[in-house]
Amino acid sequence: MSEINILPSEQAALWAIDSPTFSRHIDQCVGDGHASALAPYRLHSCGLYFGSNLRRFERALLDYRQSKSARKLETTRTDALRAGSDLLFAVEEMKTRVEIEAKQAERFYIEDHIRPPFKCTDQLSVAVHYRWRPDAESEWVYASIEFLHRFDPHFNLLHIQPARKRSASQQARDRQDRLDAEWEQLKRHALWSVRDYLQDGGDGALIPKTFRVKADTHTGGLNNFSAKFWQQPAESVLPATSR
Description:
This protein is an alpha+beta fold. It folds into two domains: about 10-105, no CATH class; about 110-240, no CATH class. It contains six helices and five strands; from the N terminus they run H-H-H-H-E-E-E-H-H-E-E. The protein has a five-stranded mixed sheet with strand order 1-2-3-4-5, covered by helices on one side. Strand 2 (about 125-130) and strand 3 form a beta hairpin. Helix 2 packs antiparallel against helix 4 (about 70-105) and helix 3 (about 50-65) runs antiparallel to helix 4 (about 70-105). The chain is flat, with a radius of gyration of 23 Å.
């Protein structure tokens, strides 16, 4: 799954939607009580964010269709109209994002397909590869930054209180599941961090080769500031060979 980039197939599906026509079809769906009028559109190809709005619209239409009393019909129709408006807004928002990404692609691109390790250990790491240039006329510079994070099982166990003592194999599986989930979190924060930095005009030449994220002091996990390498103290930036 693409984490921060809109896939070419999703872009094509989005641009195939004519917004005024789509708006009329949404109104028709509310009038009909079902989403059949949207069948010609490749809505499930427009990405996960759009898909969640589509499912909410479909649920709202189902509630409206199943309502019996006049008061319930009025309430569920209002909900369906609101969900339809959100769906139309999602189209416009995603199209705007495609335009922004196309503009940003003139200056940087971040590879967001990162394979997880075969087996995660306490010493987690994610390498983000990217290319950047100061302007559209300059040559591309290819680089990467490795984010390091030490998983602390003691912090994580504070939030898990099983009713019965689990077997050693079950505990091992639980621990591996938590490691895998923590790695996924690290990956997302690493990608978001590099994207936000370059998106805000940051100098790619100043991105460190290696950075140890700052764990949340209360949870031991990651928060929205953990991977912001440009906002952290210098000791978090490590030599490329450090672990």
